[in-house]
Structure formats: structure tokens, C-alpha cells
Write a structure and sequence with these properties.
Blueprint: H1 2-18, H2 26-43, H3 48-55, H4 58-61, H5 64-83, H6 90-104, H7 117-145, H8 147-157, H9 172-197, E1 205-206, E2 209-210, H10 211-218, H11 233-236, H12 243-249, H13 254-257, H14 267-271, H15 298-302, H16 304-312, H17 318-332, H18 336-354, E3 358-363, H19 367-380, E4 385-390, H20 395-402, E5 410-413, H21 416-424, E6 428-429, H22 434-439, E7 451-464, E8 488-489, H23 496-508, H24 511-523, H25 533-541, E9 547-551, H26 552-559, H27 564-571, E10 573-576, E11 587-595, H28 601-611, H29 614-624, E12 627-628, H30 637-641, H31 654-657, H32 659-668
Helix pairs in contact: 1-5, 2-3, 5-18, 6-9, 6-20, 7-8, 7-9, 8-16, 16-17, 19-29, 23-24, 23-32, 24-32, 25-27, 26-27
Length: about 675
């Protein structure tokens, strides 16, 4: 366990300097160094080595204040390893907001449908930048104005020398506050744009960082915490916060400490009347103005803020304050290393307890369909905690937005099209499992083993008991015969089930033949395409039509429904498995994979293996009326009563490969 924690710590520390999304990325630091040296050579007329010596002056980089910065960086990185997993995640909040928007607005409407992806992406990137910068200003100002928050934030202001690493001089409580701020801003923006604009909302980036963040950091953000006085001049400082303006904010002069709260834009300070331009303010000293306020020992950095925060709360009895004062005095006398160890061990113990064996599932499959499988798996693993997030749409976008911080281990989908979205967006990882390879036929799994089919459903034709002639239908192609004009019902062609069927036509024939068939079949419809597969069975029962194409499990569910009327619908039709004399009946799948950044990969593999085992495969047939993908498992009793059938052996991945062409066929056929 300790090896894993140490490796994570090294990874986080390495990421701080080698990730372009971080302010102290070595690329930005290099640009800053070139800028400072150029400034010294041109404006102060220093020789190169003199300029270099001034930039890396020991009195700054080896000062007691700077050494404290380095210690805080290491300690906070370690502490946040345990705090981050238990904080509100961007994914959870974005998911909640995205689903809530569907409820609040009763569905979903796409805004600006004619706008291009680049236009929406630009709007998204600008909106995220403005909200991010505004909330940084508001939170920063609150940290100064509210005494309980100032108790923690003033740690940052005790720095007496400034280096780029001073940005990490924050109390863990402040770090958590800013982390939550970032989570809320990003979740609100992502959920809103995905809801109103769909997949067109992509962040414009350079080297993986937001284009505005990249420009800000490359343009000298690290000069904000330095002893190099760079002013933009009075005019530009009305719009952008210069390094000199932020250095004023760090001044020990009380007149300066409550000014220039902004990060990039100065407009928020102008609106809030807290803007101070740097002209005529050179020569400031850094730190807190009060006597003995700039203590650099770790107990003053980590422990005293809690005491000061407690003292700022109103209506605390003097006796209670004295007890707390004595308590903190005792702690202060402890060796700083002991303090760090106490904090670390406490957080390790807390996180270890909360991070017991668990499995996190993101599912497109409805809870009532997946719960029996979870219960069966938990019976085998009673100590395992299973967390599941269900969403009918948008899970791939949320997983992509969450990135490495995603808690997702297993992805479950209800069809091939959605499964392929995860693979296309590089959100799944290859799985090494002999059990899965033995249980799942080759044509029902990804060529790179990123996903595996878990169950099959046949796209069958159903005909009315009343229509004796309809029972002569043997192939999908027969539905194009004009003799069935006005007798066929169908759900909209753009639904993934029908799009998959068209894709199979293109695979076996070509796009032109698929279009001819779809056009003729649409001409035979008794009504405009509408409803789901259940609605087609109901329409036949009501006499609106005699023929429809549905997934087999809908018929099974209607036959066993607790609603008597639905059982009547099902008993009024007979299933036909088409194309038994040639390619076989078209099938689709439900499937699953392992998230790219799964934290519980081993458990995730075991769960997928379980879903392909006899126990789970029997459940798929018994509960969901789906066919087993494991060739060693027999069909359920109900499915056996429908008879055996030959299935189409087309590689299931072709459904996704041909989806764009299939949709064009559907559009041209006006289905």
C-alpha cells in the first residue's frame, strides 16, 4: 500500500512540472526565465552572468520563506492525495446537472443547430474562461473579507520572498476551497453546454491546456510571484492584472493587501472598486505587516490557522477559547515533522477506511435491469462496495471531461453504437482475460479487446395472428414488397436499433441496395414512424397494422408483464426470425468495457468475467429475455419456446463503422 501511495505522490509531483495544464510547467518556467533575462539585459544593462546571478539570487531562492514554500509544496501534494478522492467530483456534479436540465426543461432542445463545431467550441472556451476568472476573483475576495477564511488564506501572505513556487503556499483548507470552486465552474459549464449544444462543445486547447490558460501561463504568469517588477502601464492595467499589480497585493503595506484580487482580467477589480495600478508603487516589501506575523515554521502554517478560525467565530465562550488556545500551544511545541506525520497518518487511516474494496460502474442500462446482476455478484463478494451511476445519454462526454480523476471502473452500454462511442473517444483500455476471450466469440468483441459483448438481442419481425398471409414473410427484404403497403408499423429509422439494421444491409450488399430497400419499406408504412418497440406491438393489437420489426426482448417482457393488457398485446403476435436460409437474423448486443483510468481494474475484470459466466448469462435470459453470448450456455425456457435461429455472423463492430452511411440512407429514405 505504501509503495502505491509513494508512486502516486511522485506522479503528482512530476505532473506539477511536466503537465502544460499546470502553471509551473517547465515550458512556462523556461519562457519566464528567457523573459526575465532579456529584461535584465536590455533595461538594466547587466551582463548575462550578472543577470543570471540576480535572477537566482540565494537571498531569494534559499531564504527561509522560500524553503517553507518548498516544504508546503511537498506536504500539500501528499495530503491532497487523500483529500481529492473524497471531494465532490466534477463528473458527479455535471451528471446531476445534465440530468436535472432534462427534468427542468422537460426534454432537450438543441440551441443554434446551424452553428459549426468551431463556433460552439469557441463560445464554450470563452465562457469557461470568463466564469473561471470571475469566480477566482469572488473567492479570493471572500478569503480576505471573511475572517474565518482569512485565517487560512493569510498563510499565503506570510511569504517574505516570492518565487514561482509561492503559488503553492496555501493552507490545505484553501486548496480544498479552490478545488471545489473549479469543480463547480467546470461542471456547470460542461453540463450546460452539453445539454444545449451537444457534442459540438469541445474545449479549444494547446498542448492539452485551454488556449486562454496556455496564453496566460506562457505570457508570464509566473512573474506574479517574483521580485521582477513588470508593469503593463496604466492603460493596459485597467484590463489585465500585471505581475507588478499582484506583487502589490503581496505587499506588507496594509493599503495594498485588499486590492487586485483578480487573476487574469482586471475588469472584476474595476467593478468591485479594488483595482490599484502599479505606477509609483515600486519598492514594496512582501509579507504581513504585523509583528511576528510572518512565522515560517510548519506549526504556524498548518495548525495556527485553525485556532484563528475558531477565534473568529462569534459567541464562543472565553473559557472555551482558552482551552483551545492551550491545546494549540501544546501542539505547537511538537516537532514539525511529528505534526506532518500526525496529519498524514490521520488522512491515510480515513481514506483507507473510505476506499475499501469497491467497484464504480457507469451504466446506460436502467437500474432495474442491472440490479439483479449486482446483487448476484455481491453475494459472491459480500465485502465489496458497488457504486453505480445511471444515465441514458452523455456518459461518454462526462467520462472524457473527468479525465484521470474519473472514478469509473466499468462501463456498461445497451447497444453497439454507444459502446463504440467510448472506444472512439479513447475512454476504454484493453483487457487481458482468457476467461472473457473463451466466453465471448470473436465476432462479438473488439479487435483490441477494449469491449466485450455481454448479451445478444435479435431484430425480429412480428406479425399479427389475424394476418395469415403475413406469415409467409421470410426475409427482411420481403418488407419492401408493395403487397404490404399500409400494413407495416415502425419506430423512427434514426433510432440506433434501426440504424444498426441498415448498417447490416450495407455490409452484406451496398449503400444503394440498402437505400432502395429502406425507401420501399417506408412506402409500405401504415402510419408515420413513431413510438418505441413496445408501441409497435400495441399498434398491431389495435389493428393499425399487421407487421413490425422489434428487438426480441420487448416481446418477452410484454409476455411476462404484470399488466394484463400488455400480455394481450404480446399474445396477438407471432415472432419470425428472418433470413434463416441465407445470412441469418440481425443481432445487436449489450456490452461492457473497463474505463481508461480505472482505479479498480482487477475487480472490474472479475465483474465482466462474471457477466459472461453461466450464472449471469442465465439471468440475462430469465430477466431480460436476451440471448447468451457464451456459446456454452443454453437459452432461457421462454426463448427456447420460440425455437432456434441462425444469427448473422457479421462482425458486430461493423454496426458502428457503417453508422454514418446508414444514417444517410435513413435520411434519404425519409424514415
Amino acid at each position: 500500500m505504501m509503495d502505491g501511495i509513494f508512486n502516486k505522490f511522485l506522479h503528482e509531483l512530476f505532473d506539477t512540472f511536466f503537465n502544460p495544464q499546470k502553471r509551473v510547467f517547465i515550458g512556462y518556467l523556461g519562457i519566464t526565465l528567457v523573459f526575465i533575462l532579456s529584461f535584465q539585459l536590455i533595461f538594466t544593462k547587466l551582463h548575462f552572468f550578472s543577470a543570471l546571478k540576480k535572477v537566482f539570487a540565494k537571498r531569494i531562492w534559499l531564504s527561509k520563506s522560500a524553503q517553507t514554500d518548498y516544504k508546503i509544496l511537498l506536504i500539500n501534494k501528499f495530503l491532497m492525495l487523500f483529500a481529492s478522492p473524497i471531494l465532490l467530483s466534477k463528473l458527479v456534479l455535471a451528471t446531476f446537472l445534465f440530468e436535472s436540465l432534462h427534468i427542468w426543461f422537460d426534454g432537450r432542445t438543441t440551441f443554434l443547430p446551424s452553428a459549426s463545431t468551431i463556433q460552439i467550441s469557441t463560445l464554450f472556451t470563452i465562457t469557461l474562461f470568463l466564469l473561471d476568472d470571475l469566480t477566482k476573483y469572488l473567492v479570493h475576495r471572500a478569503l480576505h473579507n471573511w475572517s474565518i477564511l482569512w485565517a487560512f488564506h493569510k498563510v499565503h501572505h506570510t511569504a517574505e520572498t516570492l518565487t514561482p513556487l509561492t503559488v503553492f503556499r496555501t493552507h490545505p483548507i484553501e486548496a480544498i476551497i479552490f478545488s471545489l470552486r473549479s469543480t463547480i465552474v467546470q461542471a456547470v459549464t460542461i453540463a450546460g453546454f452539453l445539454y444545449f449544444f451537444g457534442a459540438r462543445a469541445e474545449l479549444l486547447t494547446i498542448l492539452g491546456a485551454s488556449i486562454f490558460l496556455f496564453i496566460f501561463n506562457a505570457a508570464g504568469s509566473n512573474l506574479r510571484h517574483s521580485h521582477v517588477w513588470i508593469s503593463y502601464g496604466n492603460f493596459f492595467e485597467l484590463f489585465f492584472i500585471s505581475p507588478a499589480q499582484h506583487q502589490l497585493h503581496h505587499s506588507s503595506n496594509k493599503r495594498h493587501i485588499d486590492c487586485n484580487f483578480g487573476t487574469v482580467l482586471a475588469i472584476w477589480d474595476r467593478i468591485g472598486k479594488t483595482l490599484l495600478c502599479s505606477a509609483g508603487e515600486e519598492g514594496v516589501r512582501f509579507g504581513m505587516g504585523e509583528k511576528n506575523a510572518n512565522k515560517q515554521d510548519l506549526s504556524s502554517i498548518y495548525i495556527l490557522p485553525f485556532k484563528d478560525a475558531a477565534n473568529s467565530i462569534m459567541n464562543i465562550k472565553i473559557k472555551e477559547i482558552n482551552i483551545m488556545h492551550c491545546f494549540f500551544k501544546k501542539i505547537q511545541k511538537q516537532n514539525p515533522i511529528s505534526i506532518c506525520l500526525i496529519l498524514s497518518i490521520s488522512m491515510v487511516a480515513f481514506t483507507s477506511a473510505s476506499a475499501a474494496s469497491q467497484l464504480n460502474i457507469y451504466s446506460h442500462r436502467q437500474p432495474f435491469l442491472i440490479n439483479p446482476f449486482l446483487e448476484a455478484y455481491k453475494n459472491k463478494n459480500p465485502d465489496l462496495k458497488i457504486n453505480i451511476i445511471y444515465s441514458s445519454k452523455g456518459l461518454a462526454q462526462r467520462l472524457k471531461a473527468e479525465g484521470k480523476r474519473s472514478p469509473a471502473d466499468v462501463i456498461l452500454t445497451v447497444d453497439m453504437a454507444r459502446l463504440n462511442v467510448f472506444a472512439d473517444k479513447n475512454l476504454l483500455q484493453p483487457i487481458e482475460s482468457k476467461i472473457l476471450e473463451n466466453n465471448v466469440p470473436k465476432h462479438l468483441r473488439d479487435i483490441k479487446n477494449r469491449w466485450f459483448a455481454l448479451s445478444k438481442r435479435a431484430r425480429i419481425i412480428i406479425v399479427s395472428d389475424r394476418a395469415k398471409d403475413a406469415k409467409e414473410i421470410l426475409r427482411y427484404e420481403d418488407l419492401a414488397d408493395s403487397k404490404w403497403k399500409g400494413r407495416i408499423c415502425a419506430r423512427p429509422g434514426s433510432h440506433v436499433y434501426n440504424r444498426a439494421l441498415i448498417a447490416s444491409f450495407i455490409h452484406h450488399f451496398d449503400e444503394k441496395i440498402a437505400e432502395i430497400w429502406a425507401t420501399k419499406m417506408v412506402n409500405n408504412l401504415a402510419r408515420r414512424p413513431q413510438g418505441n418497440d413496445r408501441a409497435q406491438v400495441k399498434a398491431i393489437f389495435e389493428g393499425q397494422c399487421d407487421i413490425a420489426v422489434i428487438n426480441n426482448y420487448y416481446l418477452g417482457k410484454l409476455k411476462s408483464s404484470k399488466i394484463p393488457e400488455q400480455r394481450l398485446w404480446a399474445n396477438s403476435v407471432k415472432p419470425i426470425f428472418p433470413n434463416q436460409s441465407d445470412r441469418g437474423t440481425h443481432v445487436n448486443i449489450s456490452g461492457g468495457g473497463i474505463a481508461k483510468f480505472a482505479k479498480n481494474k482487477e475487480e472490474a475484470i472479475k465483474f465482466l468475467e462474471f457477466l459472461t459466466s453461466k450464472e449471469a448469462q442465465v439471468l440475462y435470459g430469465k430477466i431480460n429475455y436476451e440471448y447468451p453470448i457464451n456459446p456454452k450456455i443454453s437459452k432461457s425456457e421462454e426463448l427456447q419456446s420460440w425455437g432456434d435461429f441462425k444469427e448473422d455472423q457479421m462482425p458486430i463492430s461493423r454496426i458502428s463503422d457503417l453508422a454514418p452511411e446508414a444514417q444517410k440512407v435513413i435520411d434519404r429514405a425519409r424514415w
